[in-house]
Amino acid sequence: MDTWTLRPSRVFPYPRLAVTTTVPDALRARLYSFELRVVWRLFEQYAEQHPRLASALLDPALFGTLARLLDEQVAPTVVELVRGEAAIRFPGAGITRDMYRQLAATLVANPEAFLDQHDSVRRRIHSTALNFQRSILRCCARLEEDWADLQAYFFAGVVQVALVRLGSSGSDFHKGGGQVLLLTFRDAAGNESRLVYKPSDLERDFRIVGDTAALTAALNAALLNVVTGKGVTAAVLLQGNGSLCELFNDQQQAAAATGPALPVYRILPVWPGSALALQTDAAGASVLPLRDSYGYTQFLTSGEQDNRFTAAQRQIYYSAFGAQVALCWLLQITDMHQENLIVHQHLPYLIDLEACSPGVLEVPSGTQLDTAYSTFCAEQQDRQVIGWDTPDLRYETPGTAARQPLLNALYDLDGHLAYPTNVDRAQLSAAFQSAVTLILANVAAYQTWLTNAAQLVARVLVISTRSLQGAERAMADAGNVADIVLMCQRGGDIDLSRWSPLFADAISPAQGDPPTPQQIGARYAALQPAFAVWSDPQLAADFADGDVPTFYQRMSGVDLLNSRGRALTVDYGRMLASLPAPRQLPVATALVQQWGAQAPLQPTWWFVQPVLQTQRQYLQQMQAPGGFSTLRIQAALQDLQRWPNRPDSQPG
Predict the structure, then answer these.
(1) Do 385 and 68 meet the contact criterion of CB atoms below 8 Å apart?
(2) The pLDDT value given to residue 398
(3) Which residues of the chain have pLDDT under 50?
(4) Pairing of strands 181-187, 286-287
(5) Contact assessment for residue 463 and residue 554, using Cβ atoms and an 8 Å cutoff
(6) Which residue, 583, 641, 607, is CA-closest to 373?
């Protein structure tokens, strides 16, 4: 039987009980049964109208996923609610384990009464089920439209007669319940093929690691007849020098270099950001329809045939890895942690490349590829759902939580985990240095690549995803949506108070002279006012819908966009109020000159300049004669030497 260990909570500040507080899974499951039945009936109706999707939609494993997801999202809150009631009824140590279980059974015996009393739980259950339902059915509708093109592009024209499995990746909900889904198709001969569906813009992935030659051939042969009406055209996606990795491979070949070719794979970005045009929403604001973007990628296997290495294969692997680190470091590609690298065909394949650093990555660790380098395991526990469609729904957890290998792990020929060695790190560092030299010798080509990607929409990591996850789960316990809005506003006030001194220091030269616009521009680059994010109404709306908020920026644009594609407004007038009175007018004047803003000072953009401009200037500076690039490369190599061959948290 699965149990939940109580965690301290600021939402339910009850005293500790003398017994371990749990709510048996059978009791928790009663709270979810209604939503599970609703989703089942809805999928049944959809399956009747779309028979080639029926097997996937009515797969018991799919509903087991929803049941497990509901419990992961709701159970901690239910446990704390029951614990709070127990602490009130049985203060001190006056409760036994049996008494607690009896109380839990009494409180949850009538699910409707419990949910009426605790509306936050009802809303959480409903929003989780609704997000899951939306994610699946939105994917199905797009599949039906794109089916013929997917056959042509990913399955060499082999007719796929049915979608037989539709698996959730377990990723966070974004942009209205979107989740990465794993698709399994079956052809007339019974052979199965897999594909990955992503409810997000894949253009950045395509422009970095995409097989542009494959898309060029498909478009030239007129094999794609549906997605070409959704922005998949040569004019939008194919401007000449290929994806970033293809460009590097061509330069390496031209220089007769001995490094391995960097891997690319098939990616189909549908409604890519470069094809999106501004629209006007119901409130009359200009928005970029970010939620229209989605796409498909080739499924990358990572089994024994992919990840068991000889010594020679390891040398090739770390040479390719070193070149990838160089590209990501020089072109501000970040969030490349251990879950965003897959070992496939004995090479490192980069996935989920939507995140972009708005500034400059000082050392390679800023890419987060250091975690992909040596973090091969994570604590995981398999939770199986039994009887999801019966009154006896329960969760079984075989064994205990253990560190399980991830898809970026390397193995020796005997199947043992093979962590990096000093020899591997030396190979990676040498390949990194060679790649940086090659890139800086061909900066003009990379400037062209950046120019071609000017309209691309990248995800910007203003606040870490983990921090947003924690806030989203905490706010789900709030009594109503108004509480969530209020908590968001308070978060903005807290960030405002923290950021005010930084702002004052950055734009107030020590000598007391009025700051120039150039000084503000130069010194502001390191400041990121997170209070603007917390003040944006869409953040509260995302939390209330069960989403983890995301933020975006067009490479050539100056606006930071929320998940609806609307620009955030940064109120620097509030910042001016934090300055000494004699400083306020000179600073306001300089800011108006810098940003062209009118009083009250509210420029609508987030950064001093577009990401594209920052990256182009940085490459130019790295290429210029002098000691700047030498010092940066030395710092980068020193950083690589600090990458652990095995993190301290990894067992031997």
Answers:
(1) yes
(2) 67
(3) 1-19, 525-526, 597-608, 648-649, 651-652
(4) unpaired
(5) no
(6) 641
pLDDT tens column, 140-156: 999 999 999 999 999 99
Q: What span, in angstroms and rounded, lies between the C-alpha atoms of 257 and 28? A: 61
Phi, psi of 148 (to 5 degrees): -65, -40
- Structure token pair of residue 317: 């692997």
Residues 6+ apart with CB under 8 A from 331: 244, 446, 450, 615
Angstrom distance (rounded) from CA 238 to CA 166: 31
> What confidence score (pLDDT) does residue 592 get?
64
Token pair 């620009």 is found at 567
Q: How many CB atoms lie within 10 A of CB 373?
A: 27
* Alpha-carbon distances of 338 from 341, 342, 409, 500, rounded to whole Å: 6, 8, 9, 35
Q: Write the DSSP assignment of 273-318 as a string of letters.
A: GGG---EE-TTS-EE--GGG-EEEEE----SHHHHB--HHHHHHHH
Residues 215, 237 contacting (CB under 8 angstroms): yes
At residue 60's C-alpha, the angle toward residues 57 and 65, to 5°, is 90
Q: Quick one: which of 95, 73, 69 has its CA closest to 84?
A: 95
| H helix intervals, 385-480 | 422-440, 443-452, 465-475
In the three-class reduction of DSSP (H, G, I as helix; E, B as strand; rest coil), residue 330 is classed as helix
Q: What is the C-alpha end-to-end distance of the chain, expressed in Å?
A: 31
Of residues 107, 105, 109, 94, the one with CA closest to residue 19: 94
Number of H helices and E strands in the chain, helices first, is 25, 16
Domain definitions of the chain by residue range: 26-46+59-127, 465-550+570-603
The Cα–Cα gap between 236 and 155 comes to 24
pLDDT at 9: 35
What is the pTM assigned to this prediction?
0.89
Q: Which amino acid does the sequence have at 503?
A: F
The three-point CA angle 431-432-436 to 5° equals: 115
Is 374 in contact with 647 (CB distance < 8 Å)? yes
> What is the amino acid identity at position 141?
A
Q: Tokens for 581?
A: 């009175």
Distance CA 401, CA 25 (A): 18
457-460/355-356 β-pairing: parallel
Place of tokens 């973090």: 375
d(CA 423, CA 387): 51
- Angle in degrees, CA 502, 503, 505, rounded to 5: 65
b/e 610-647 (16+ beta carbons within 10 angstroms → b)? bbbbbbbebbeebbeeeeebeebbeebbebbeebbeeb
Instruction: Report whether the peptide linkage leading into residue 391 is cis, meaning its omega lies within 30 degrees of zero.
Output: no
Do 158 and 200 contact (CB within 8 A), yes or no? no
What pLDDT score was predicted for residue 142? 98
Question: In Å, how far are 28, 72, 380 from 473, measured between CA atoms?
Answer: 18, 11, 20
Q: Are 459 and 552 in contact (CB under 8 A)?
A: yes
Distance, CA of 539 to CA of 406 (rounded, Å):
32
